[in-house]
Design the sequence.
């Protein structure tokens, strides 16, 4: 889910916690947990505002995309916007577990 949040922050040049909850469909506590991890990693920063919730921004860098190799001015977490959006699409799929089960010989 972290890539969905990063993708949203990059596409909208920042967002509040409530905007991220609405965009991802996640409860506030889940988004806060993800934001804490992203903040500790140095990928997201919050900008305080007077009598308003802080605006959260994805930290962008200039460099080579770690996925596709193009040089990009707005890399987030090492990915260009296109690759970041591709990764968030995969991440939003529900987790499915497949495993082999022995056949019964009844």
Sequence:
């Amino acid at each position: 889910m972290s890539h969905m949040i990063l993708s949203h922050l990059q596409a909208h040049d920042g967002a509040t916690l409530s905007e991220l909850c609405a965009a991802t469909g996640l409860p506030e506590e889940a988004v806060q947990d993800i934001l804490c991890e992203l903040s500790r990693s140095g990928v997201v920063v919050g900008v305080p505002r007077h009598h308003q919730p802080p605006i959260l921004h994805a930290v962008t860098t200039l460099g080579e995309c770690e996925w596709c190799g193009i040089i990009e001015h707005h890399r987030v977490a090492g990915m260009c916007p296109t690759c970041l959006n591709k990764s968030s699409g995969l991440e939003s799929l529900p987790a499915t577990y497949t495993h082999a089960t022995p056949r019964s010989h009844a």
